[in-house]
Amino acid sequence: xxxxxxxxxxxxIAEPHNPSDPLAVAVLSRRGTCIGYISREHNEWISEKLxxxxxxxxxxxxxxxxxxxxxxxAYCSN
Length: 78
Known about the structure:
Helix content is 18%, strand content 36%. The protein is an alpha+beta fold and 78 residues long. It has one domain (9-77). A five-stranded antiparallel β-sheet has the order 3-2-1-4-5. The chain is globular and about 30 Å long. It comes from Sphingobium tyrosinilyticum.
């Protein structure tokens, strides 16, 4: 997440075989690194859209946190 910037395009990839959540949607940086996952409150509809439309992309709107005791969070839009 340290190398990501606001405005950067990211790719959304469904992970139907994820043992923690079959509706998991990974967020990959433009370098192909998994930088996190879509929250469970949003992953159902995004996972369904990926299943019907294929690969989707989004853009990082805002990055917050990133301190020693607070992990970074990125907010994306499509």
